[in-house]
Amino acid sequence: MRIAAVTCVKNEGPFLLEWIAYNRAIGVTDFLFYSNDCDDGTDALLDVLAAGGVVQHLPNPAEGRNYQMEALKDAKRQPVITQADWVWVADVDEFLNIHVGDNTIPALIAACDDPKAISIQFQFFGNGGVDEYRDQPVIEQFLHSHDPDVWCGQLAIECKTLVRKDFPLQYFGAHRPFFRDKGPRRRPRWTDASGRPVPQAFLLAENERRIRRFPAKGARDFATLNHYALRSLDSYIVKTERGDVNREGRSFEDAYWRERSDVAWKDDSILRMMPRLTAELGRLAQVPGVAEAHLACVHAHRAKVARLMEDPFYRDLRRALHDAPTISQPEEALLRHLGLDWREVAHG
């Protein structure tokens, strides 16, 4: 089975090898990377990996537009995608945590009875008090999240989607594919990560709320998508300076951090993948030039943290995020309305 992962990156150099190694461990056979505006060695590392036959690397074709959508439009015609049995569109801070069989994508597909698409919902892993960037696996450092059935008081949680080659594709979206003919007889069989049919409102993208999300409760028996959007506080500060790889002009600051800071729920199930991840990292390190290129990215990341900390704006932002509540702003406002303090609630 050929499984191709396609992703867009900007200044993600220190985290590339872990993401590639992890996805290889769960069955991804091919990688298509699009990069833009990198100054931390991301593109150089990808070029070395491409020369070693590990990935394919292209410049993002977007010019001041929606970077991810332009890349996905281009990916649709790339042989690595057209020749794949399945396509996985995801970001490098997202790790598919499979709970069935041998914990691989083929096992997930089999558990869902081989549909034409499988949508897996996010579980947002908080920062958990990790301040300094460390060059070690992200999945090992961050083990606490929100209640996986509920996010920010909403029952609907975003997802990412595995797409089979015979899906009646109109175009890839960042979170799910879209199809043109919505007649009942032509609708593809599409499941959640428990093998159940996805809700019709989501399937047909009937309204804005259901374009890329649906209720999570009961939908994650076979897999969860671990989303490490924050990582360490150091790395998040770099992320705020970098901006969004997907949309020009979008920033990451206080609200984004707080929406994903909930650490009430411990989930270390992904650690079962550490032996396979370590083995794949070892294989990647043997590719000529990869270890050196990775180390250059690590040094560049640390240097940018140090440089940003010379700026009063980023020093103040770092201090504010460090002291921020580990719940979203609407939840804190509700607690205040009820006469409760978030610290008392968070700590029982």
- Calculate the terminal CA-CA distance, rounded to whole Å: 48 Å
Helix content: 25-40%
Hey, roughly how much beta strand do the residues contain?
15-25%
Helical region count? Answer: 14
* Poorly predicted spans: 244-251
Encode the helix/strand succession as letters.
EHEHEHHEEHEHEEEEEHEEHHEHHHHH
Main sheet summary: 10 strands, mixed
Total strands: 14
Report the radius of gyration as a whole number of Å.
20 Å
Q: Which of globular, elongated, flat, extended, rod-shaped describes the shape?
A: globular
Task: State mean pLDDT (0 to 100 scale).
Answer: 91
Secondary-structure-based class equals alpha/beta
Textual characterization of the structure:
With 348 residues, the chain is of the alpha/beta class. Helix content is 35%, strand content 18%. It contains 14 helices and 14 strands. A hairpin with a 4-residue loop joins strand 9 and strand 10 (177-178). The radius of gyration is 20 Å and the shape is globular. The N and C termini lie far apart (48 Å). 44% of the residues are buried.
Question: SSE layout and pairings?
Answer:
Elements: E1 3-9, H1 16-25, E2 30-35, H2 42-51, E3 56-59, H3 67-75, H4 79-82, E4 86-89, E5 94-98, H5 105-111, E6 117-124, H6 138-141, E7 144-145, E8 156-164, E9 171-172, E10 177-178, E11 190-192, H7 200-203, E12 213-215, E13 223-227, H8 233-242, H9 254-259, E14 265-266, H10 274-285, H11 290-308, H12 312-323, H13 329-337, H14 342-346
Parallel strand pairs: 1-2, 1-4, 2-3, 6-11, 6-13
Antiparallel strand pairs: 4-8, 5-13, 6-8, 7-14, 8-12, 9-10
